[in-house]
Design a protein that fits this description.
The protein is of the alpha/beta class and 929 residues long. It has 29 helices and 29 strands. The strands form ten sheets. The chain has a four-stranded antiparallel β-sheet with strand order 6-5-14-16. A four-stranded mixed β-sheet has the order 10-11-9-12, covered by helices on one side. β1, α2 and β2 form a beta-alpha-beta unit. α2 packs across α19 and α20 packs antiparallel against α23. The chain binds one RNA strand of 77 nucleotides through β8, β12, α9, α12 and α20. Keywords: Aminoacyl-tRNA synthetase, ATP-binding, Coiled coil, Cytoplasm, Ligase, Nucleotide-binding, Protein biosynthesis. Belongs to the class-I aminoacyl-tRNA synthetase family. ValS type 1 subfamily. Monomer.
Length: 929
RNA sequence: GGGCGCAUAGCUCAGCUGGUUAGAGUGCUGCCCUCACAUGGCAGAGGUCAUAGGUUCAAAUCCUAUUGCGCCCACCA
């Protein structure tokens, strides 16, 4: 019995071990990266989780993948930096705090901006590090001392700089447009923030009467045939009848013969009484509805377009909360959906509602609160994206940035090539205020207002509007009039307007001139860091973030750094439940990763997630048992080795000449595993890497090698190999399962590293390459498997030892002879004797293995000979069938001529073997009496 | 209306650039608590690789079409 420095318990206890190592890692400065010109840099910036975030499975997957990359590159000798941080998540965080104060019966309106923001900051201080702590628990080796927050002072400077410089280049403008408006959050949203979902709605057909009904005599011949053109009015179809209160025209397609004669005529808008004209516009689809469309320029993007073209009146009928305003007349004060009901009722009463059809259509929803968004006319700030998109398109087309899996390239390009201007102003409080100041005096003169216009307006096309000041620092006075009454814009910026700067703003960009020496030095340092670590290496994220974040970071990279922000984009799958639904809090179908960590361990969580991450992941709790079981297997194999190998045994000096065949085999397998695992991670095939390790460790190492090693466990060489293979396996496993591997390594000792996180990544060793050993071991495995199989067939009790005879061609004889004890042990044979020539012993059962190695099981007392003859006949018939098929293949001229030589050669060899084997079987069968 | 992805063992999924007898985990059946591990070991059953064509000496793998499911994008109100 060796004296153990530390005992390993019979069952792995992840909780204890993981908590210990999480603590240790936190105290080690090892994950801090700094400029090191001697090393290649490897940089990942974390997709910053929301400060409101609680670790969910998507995070767990996303961050495990990043951690694997970072850990492996670190071990490979890169200066590996994983930049952590959180996102202030404007709308989401504001909503959380609003809900919190609502419990105290307060609204943010009552509190006022300043008080409310204090409350949000307070919340951030209390809960903002929740997810960071959870990431640590997952094992993430971020450079924690660099942790950034998108509302940090320095980071905010980047946002101001970007806003102002884009404004100066005329790439940011203010204007009145139809945007997506969330009536619940009461803010504008970008197109990406208002995803469309199909809803079962209704299509209402409403009759708008003509002011002067057409005289019967004016009817053209054509019109008389068309039933759709009633001469006392026009029927329009709409899904949102309440918007009719803001109608200022009805449009038809100019080519539509049904309505041609009515173009220019006047209609009386029902319920309102306003006179509106009939206009012609190509935007109108003749085949939809009645071919006539009501035009509400202030409440629909298409109608807005027509409103501009035809210089219609823009009537906004809603308040920001989607309650109808004074322009809605009798319906003022009603909610939009209430008003819809009322209007339908009133129209029905007036016999103007022609019909209602069921209609399934896509409706925009707020991505934060899922409220149906309202297309809403308002004054907002926009980024002119087309010029920014150009280099971002080129970079991907030229392969400077590569998406994996590749198919996402197309998704990205398609979006980028059809990019729309980006609405960046939000009517919330939590976020970066726009660096825009309004001179109250100038504003009063020009009559400009930053409020939503009620009706007619003209677009402000130039960025040089009087009284609007966009500046890096708050100006003292108005440059136009010298007035000092300046008011900063109330709006804040889209959260993504800060996230898109993440790959470089996290390094302290932009670097301002500093006065103090200390600050100067720090700034110089940061500049060097940015230069060294940027562009980052890989971005790991989920598909739904491509437009929000990935695409915009690429634009920002070119716009402000003049280069790509990252070389590779790895897009992983979505985590779903067993039914295939996306895991989400609202569905209540999510599996809490923290619970999994609690019951199975972080390593188990990581392993199970990664082994399933080839595509979208369908998770159930059982999936994590596989990870737990594997961890336990690693633990126990280590325990066995620890208990049996002498202290101080080290595999670094293993001499292949002193090795048995099985030793050479496992070492060759290990080499192969090192190569394949490394290659798989390089190609972002994480599931392949982890499954290779699983198979190697469990099946090759534990099931075969360790079992064989038990026989020679007292030999130092065996111990050395066990320790060596285990140690290398732990290193390979470390990026995937960091806790258990570090724990076992530390217990095994003999390492000069506090944590193997900084140990070198294993390399295949030339001296362990051995093709022959692997071939011979295949024979031994076959022998064992066949013997076991026959034992089962013969229903032999495990205690019954069988007698075996073996023959091998001279070339292989020595090696197999040496392996005989192993075969005996694994196959529970009591004796294995060697035959000098290859003739079957009397009454033996053939267990043919290969052409140059035969195995016979002595049957006496074990089996009915007649039965065995019959069984052999079946096997022989099978053999003939296979021979026939192979012969046919080799007779095929096309195959012989066109297939690669090796393939043909392999087939020839296989045919020979089959023939020999079958002939032998026949002989053996004849010999059986 | 465009675009993409997926259909392989009862279930969940691997299978990279075509090449022996298509794999794993889980479940099921049988036998084992063999001194690292029952969160374990050994063995077994289970697949016309969605369908129909095509290319090829050779197709789960490449091409075309069809069916079913899922996702994304889009200004038919």
């Amino acid at each position: 019995m060796n004296d153990l420095p530390r005992e390993l318990s019979a069952q792995y206890n992840p909780k204890e071990v993981e908590e210990k190592w999480a603590g240790l890692w936190a105290r080690m400065p090892l994950f801090h990266a700094s400029v090191n010109p001697d090393k290649e840099h490897f940089t990942i910036v974390i997709p910053p989780p929301n400060v409101t975030g609680i670790l969910h499975m998507g995070h767990a997957l996303n961050n495990t993948l990043q951690d694997i990359l970072i850990r492996m590159r670190r071990m490979q000798g890169c200066e590996a930096l994983w930049m952590p941080g959180t996102d202030h998540a404007g709308i989401a965080t504001q909503n959380v705090v609003e809900r919190q104060i609502a419990k105290e019966g307060l609204t943010r309106g009552q509190m006022g901006r300043e008080k409310f923001l204090e409350k949000v900051w307070e919340w951030k201080e209390n809960y903002g590090s929740t997810i960071i702590n959870q990431l640590k628990r997952l094992g993430a080796t971020c450079d924690w001392q660099r942790e950034r927050f998108t509302m940090d002072e320095g980071y905010s400077r980047a946002i101001t700089e970007v806003f102002v410089s884009l404004y100066e280049k005329d790439l940011i403008y203010q204007g009145d447009y139809i945007i997506n408006w969330c009536p619940r959050c009461q803010t504008a949203l970008s197109d990406e923030e208002a995803p469309h979902h199909d809803l079962d709605g209704k299509l209402y057909y409403i009759k708008y009467p003509l002011k002067e009904p057409q005289a019967a005599g004016r009817k053209s011949k054509r019109n008389s045939k068309k039933t759709a053109a009633p001469e006392d009015g026009i029927i329009v179809a709409t899904t949102r009848p309440e918007t009719m209160l803001g109608d200022t025209a009805v449009a038809v397609n100019p080519k539509d013969k049904r309505y041609k004669h009515l173009i220019g005529a006047t209609l009386v808008l029902p319920l309102v009484g306003r006179e509106i004209g009939i206009i012609a516009d190509d935007l109108v689809d003749k085949s939809f509805g009645t071919g006539a469309v009501k035009v509400t320029p202030a409440h629909d993007p298409n109608d807005y377009q027509m409103g501009k073209t035809h210089e219609l009146e823009f009537i906004n009928i809603m308040q920001p909360d989607a309650v109808l305003n004074a322009h809605a007349g009798d319906y003022a004060g009603m909610d939009r959906f209430e008003a819809r009901e009322a209007i339908i009722e009133d129209l029905t009463e007036r016999k103007l509602l022609v019909k209602i059809e069921p209609h399934r259509h896509a409706v925009g929803h707020c991505y934060r609160c899922h409220t149906i968004v309202e297309p809403y006319l308002s004054k907002q700030w926009f980024v002119r994206t087309k010029p920014l998109a150009k280099p971002a398109i080129d970079a991907v087309k030229k392969g400077k940035i590569a998406f994996t899996p590749q198919r996402w390239t197309k998704v990205y390009l398609n979006w980028m090539e059809n990019i729309k201007d980006w609405c960046i102003s939000r009517q919330i409080w939590w976020g970066h205020r726009l660096p825009v100041y309004y001179c109250q005096r100038c504003m009063a003169e020009t009559g400009s207002k930053s409020q939503v216009p009620i009706s007619n307006f003209k677009k402000n096309s130039k960025n040089t509007q009087k009284g609007i000041i966009v500046a890096r620092v708050r100006p003292e006075k108005c440059p136009d009039c010298g007035g000092t009454d300046l008011k900063q814009d109330e709006d804040v910026l889209d959260t993504w307007f800060s996230s898109w700067l993440w790959p470089f703003a996290t390094f302290g960009w932009p670097f301002s001139d500093q006065v103090s020496e200390d600050a100067k030095r720090r700034t110089e340092e940061q500049k060097k860091e940015l230069e060294y670590f940027y562009p980052t290496s890989v971005l790991v994220t989920a598909p739904e973030i491509i437009f929000f974040w990935v695409a915009r970071m690429i634009m920002a990279g070119f716009a402000f750094m003049g280069s790509i922000p990252f070389k590779d984009v790895f897009i992983h799958g979505t985590v779903r439940d067993a039914q295939g639904r996306k895991m989400s809090k609202s569905l209540g179908n999510s599996i809490d990763p923290l619970e999994v960590i609690e019951t199975y361990g972080a390593d188990a969580l990581r392993f199970s997630l990664i082994s399933a991450c080839a595509s979208d992941i369908f998770l159930s709790k059982e999936k994590f048992e596989q990870g737990r079981n594997f961890a336990n297997k690693i633990w126990n194999a280590s325990r066995f080795i620890r208990m049996n190998a002498a202290v101080g045994v080290d595999g670094s000096r293993i001499d292949p000449a002193a090795c048995r065949i099985q030793d050479l085999w496992i070492l060759a397998e290990l080499n192969d595993t090192i190569r394949r695992v490394t290659k798989a991670v390089d190609a972002f095939r994480f599931h392949e890497a982890v499954n290779l390790l699983y198979t190697f460790f469990w099946h090759s190492f534990c099931d075969w090698y360790v079992e064989m090693a038990k026989q020679t466990i007292c030999e130092k060489n065996t111990q050395e190999i066990l320790v060596h293979v285990l140690k290398v396996s732990l290193l390979l496993l470390h990026p995937f399962m960091p806790f258990i591997t570090d724990e076992i390594s530390s217990v095994l000792g003999g390492s000069s590293f506090e944590t193997i996180a900084v140990a070198p990544w294993p390399q295949p060793e030339k001296k362990f390459e051995n093709k022959e050993a692997r071939e011979l071991m295949r024979i031994i495995f076959d022998a064992v498997l066949l013997l076991r199989e026959r034992r089962h067939e013969l229903k032999l009790n495990p205690a019954v030892k069988v007698r075996v005879r073996m023959w091998a061609a001279p070339k292989k004889r020595a090696a197999l002879l040496a392996a005989a004890p192993v075969i005996c042990q694994l196959a529970q044979a009591s004796e294995l004797e060697w035959l000098d020539d290859d003739t079957a012993p009397q009454n033996s059962l053939s267990l043919l293995v290969a052409r140059d190695a035969h195995l016979y099981l002595l049957l006496e007392g074990l089996v009915d000979i007649a039965q065995e003859r019959e069984r052999l006949a079946g096997e022989i018939a099978q053999g003939h069938k296979q021979i026939k098929a192979k012969e046919a293949l080799l007779k095929n001229k096309g195959f012989v001529k066109k297939a690669p030589e090796q393939v043909v050669a392999a087939e020839r060899k296989r045919l020979e073997e089959l023939k020999a084997k079958t002939a032998d079987l026949e002989e053996i069968r004849r010999a059986l009496q």
